[in-house]
Structure formats: C-alpha cells, structure tokens
Amino acid sequence: MARILWVEKQIDYEPQGIMSMSAVLKEAGHDVALIIAAQEDPVQVAKAYQPDILGYSTMTGSQHYYFKLNRRLREALNGQSKRVLSVFGGPHPTFFPDIIHEEGVDGVCVGEGEGPIVDLANALDNGGFHPNLANWWFDVDGEIVKNPVRPLIRKLGDLPMPDRELIYNKHAPTRNSPIKHFMASRGCPYHCTYCFNHAWYKIYAREKRGYQRTIDSVIEEVNWVRERYPLEQVVFLDDLFIIYMDWLEEFAERFPKEVGLPFFCNVRSNLLTPEKVALLKKAGANTVSMGIEAGNDRLRNDLLKRKMSRETIIESGRMLHEAGINLTATNILALPTATLEDDFETMRLNAAAKVKYAHAFLFQPYPATELGEFTEQNGHMAGSFEDIGAIAWDRSILIRDEKEKNQMENLQRWFAIGVEHPWMEPVIRLLIKVPRHKFIDILYWWNHKLWKGWAITRRVHPIKITPKKIWQNAIHFLQLEA
Q: Model-level pTM?
C-alpha cells in the first residue's frame, strides 16, 4: 500500500481532480491524505503521515508557491527511511511539463491523472519506482524520461465516485455549505483563444472533444452527498452542460423525479434554443451562466473567436428571463487591443441580456493559450508570463496608457453594479478615475464583494439564510486569499 499526500494551499470549493484521483487510488488499495496549508502546519502533517508521494495540482500563477512549499516538505522528510516522490499535475504542469527541471520536482503528469497516479502508486507498492509510465515525465538522477499520453477516459461513469470525504472530513466550511459542486462531463469542442482547450487537444490529437457521464452516475453521486451532508443547491461545473440533446432530455426527465434539487450549470449562447431552455426549466435549473466576454463584435468574434452575435446573446438572455431562469455571465476586461469604451460596451451588453450577476475578470495572458501567445508576440505584455498572478481580478499586466489601465482595473470592481443599474454609468465613470491606492482598493473591493455576496446567495445560488450561515460564510470568505 502506497501513501499519497495531496497538498493544497486552501479550499474554496471541492477540487474535482484531487477527489477523483483519491477515489481511484483508494479503489486500488492505497492510502490517501490531504494537507490544507492555510489551516494547518504542512510540515507537521507530512512528518506524521510519512508519505511515499507528495502530490500537487497547480494552476498557472500558483506554481511558485507550490515549488517553495514542496522544497520545505522534502527537507523536513529527508530523515525518513524511504524516498519521497514529489509529483505535479493539473493545468500548469500539463502545458508546461518542463517544470520537471525545477528543484525538488520528481515527476510531472501530463493530461488526465487517474490512471497515471494509480500506475505510480502501484509501481512503488510492488517493490520500486520505474519511469516507463504513460503520461509521466520523470527526473531520474538528472535524466528526463518523457512518456506518451494514454487515451482519454471515455466511460466517465466507470470511474468511482469522487472521494468527497477527503475534503469534507478536513474542511468544515465546504462540508457544511448547502452549495456543493459536481461534474457531469469533461471536454469542450470550441476554440476560444483565451482557453487552454486548443492546447489540450494538441496533446490528445484525434480524441473526441467531450465525454458525458451517465445520468445514473450523476444522480447517484448527488443523492449520496445529500444523504450525508447539507445540500440545497447543486452546481455543475462542466464547460458545456447542454451540448448533447439526448443526454439533456434524459436528465430533464429523471433529475427532478430522482433528485428534485435546484441546480446551476454553464451554457453557451449559440447552443441555447427554446427547446433546451424548456428542458433546463423542467430539470430544475434556477440559474445558468454563459460567457459574454466582450461587447465589441471585433473583440468577441475575431480576437476571442467566440463566433456569436450580440443579437444571439440578447435573445438567449430574453429566453432565460421569460423562463424564470436567472442568468449570470463571465466577461473579460482590459483585453489586448481593447479600450475602456469597449469595456463599457461589454457592461451595457450584459444589461441588455438581463444578466442577474455579471462576473468581470481582468485579462491574464496565460501561456500556451492562443491569446496569451498573441499578447506576448505583439508586445502588449509588461514583463513575462512569470508575472501572472494566481487571481484574475487584481491588476492587468498589459502595456497601455496608465490612466486607462487604472480605470479598467477600477471598473472591474464596479462592473456588476453597472450591469444591475445602467443609470449609474456616469457615476461609475467618475469613480473609476480615482487613482489606485490602498484605501481606494479596500473600499472598492468591499463594494464589489458585498454586492457579489448578496447576488450569489439571493439569485445565483439561492439558499436558506440564517445568521449562523452568514457568520460562517463571512469567516470562510475572509480566510481565503484575495
């Protein structure tokens, strides 16, 4: 039996990848534990657990934190009799496996992790490490061994149920939250330039772009959670929940009868039809989210390759509004070649689409994305990809007039309120001209977060509110970085 210790900085909501990999590891007979560095001493936990494998799932922007923490943990574990392998997976290592050269990194998993992590644990359990395992890059005494990837998991329903107890037993806010997160599919067929999707399918050439779980497995998981933990609102994190009509028809027939909970899912404007809206309503969707991203047609369709008209977006919002389904939207401000007026146009398009809460992010030029490479190659970026932070709502790292950049950053904090109250646009134009400094940042941050908190709990994920829940959510929220 191998011992695998996952290391997370903090928990916002259920990390789907870690839960799935923990489930397959336990099914294979291995032992799994979790460190949440924000709430405990990771060195003490690691020394007490004595792992064979230290595992990290990292996003671009967070990798440096985990490199540093990994070195600390390895130093603390140096005295144990067995060798510890430090392995990294997730989006950043998948697209930048050259992090294998980083000090303290023994292995990098490229792509899906369930099969590779079990293979590695089995190899250690059967008498020793060997580097010829699909999906892995290994550093073996300074020699880099690069293995090809195996096919994507096609039958997602064959995977064991995600190991939620790994998270819930350790993290009370997530365990006690009435809002819990699920995945009903993997993959996306579209080619938006700000997304890693096109790079993913360079790794998995000739693979089908999207696999759905069976309705049976989805219903089983939701009901399993409801029987054991608080659950009032189901959140499906899938990129495209509505892509397959036959799946959606079966889901709409069975989910309200066998589960009967309201849910949230992601949709795409040009996939929405009156028939699909009716099925979502029948199934119990109270809120959906779609990407608007940019109001300007050139930015949305040429730069971002969203390939949808503003009329389609507005019509989608109208259909959802008339069906009584709340609409939230994602938007990207401060895009390369965009102006402040373009961002205000995006705000107005959200209002026209009757968006009930508008998320706004400052563009981050992620490496390995088409738009990230465009930004670097055309000289729009100040610094390098290493300057990208772990969050996308603090500062822009693009080169532009400092006054306009300041206003774009300030607009991010006022954007959702401007969508809700379009009459405030002249006021917002004045407010965003204030230079950024600590006091203004705190004031605007609280303004943004208070409105977001109200909208999320009353519209996006409506739950029963009690003073205790408000207090617990506030404490959890304040403990999270940014």
A: 0.92
